[in-house]
Amino acid sequence: MRDSARYAWWLLIFLFSLLTLGNIALFWRLFRAPDSPRLQTNNARMGVEFKARYALALEQFGQGKPVVQTALEEVFNNLDEAFAPYEAAVYRAILESAFGVGDPQKTLQSLPDLPSETLSPLQRRWQALRWQEAFSSPLTPEQVPALLHALPDTPSMFSGELLKVALYRRAGDVARADALRESLGRAAGWAVVTLGAVLATLICANIGGLVVLIVYFYRRLRLPSRPAPTESPFVYDPLLWALVIFLLTMLNAPVLEIMLRDFGVNASNAIYLLAMLLPLMYLASLQRESGALGQIRWFGGAWWKQVGAGLAGYAAYMPFLSVLFALTLLVMPALPAEQTHPLGERAAASRTALQWLWLFAQAAVLAPIIEEFMFRGVLFKVLWQRTGRVWLSAFVSGYLFAVIHPQFLGGIFPITVLGMILALVYAHTRSLLPCILIHALNNGLITLMLWSVGS
Question: Average pLDDT of 352-380?
Fold first, then answer.
């Protein structure tokens, strides 16, 4: 097995080179494409969506009409930045009708002449007539479902829900309109409360992280030269086959999905679980080996110490994340919209509570377990044993950890730092539990933030 480990090294070098070159090529193609939307535009749309929900939440919390109107004015001011003029006018008319402010008919008068993001001039004029009729022609409650089906797609999912409220109110079905509005208001209220709790947690973590970093560098905690000082530098190399299995499964996932889709099977979740189970089964089989491989312990120490190390490690990451996020904002106007966080891509496709629950389970439970085993339990441990240099091994494993996330300049620096901190926490504790906890907190809070903004 140790003799075959050199093939694992060559395979990993090839796979990580392939991932790196693929990310660079994708970024360059998207960056050079003249019609490629920018990441800043996507974020502006997300901001408009949240501010519209915030206005609805203020109404739900019993705030006065002037407060709600002030929030709506901020939404109106940001519509032109987030959407093309045609889509911005449609969104504005829906908001005006749903909240009972302004004149939606007047807003839609110039709709046929406004440039659209996706519609041709002929499509634009035809669909503009349908929008104008929807907000001006007489309407009965029985006609609303057919009208909703006949109207063009709204600029966003949330504006589509508000459109139902507006049309039922126009049709005189006030009870149904109020019920829909109440449901949207409750969801918006919970979203605002959740986002506030997440932001408060991050602020506290930033303050605590500064304290942790000061104490850590003041005490200058020493680390051994290798995880197994009495063993050969090559003793852990066979572990690399687990990482090879993981990467090969994930890289072939799109092909497997297409093949299985031809048989009417949606296998994305099964492939994800397969990519998790196969490497873990291989690592479990090594426990029967003699020597250092059979003596590997993935978890160790009192549980409260491991939890404490996890909380301290997550707090230590927060100051770095804040600085690197600020730097990302500076380059955001140049970033393609497709270079987003994987959680963001899955969140955009999530519609039901079950989909959000599965996304949270993937992000905050499954991904931390498998990725910590692969990158801290395997890659970092092998590099540390090989080189005897903990900081160098932490950086290399952290960078390669960032490479598998297809964000390139949008996330490679913060993810690399996160990987380094996770590696150092593992080096100090010799346990993966604190690393899994840090990873779960990071992904879980991001998922909650995405839910609060985009649900």
Answer: 90
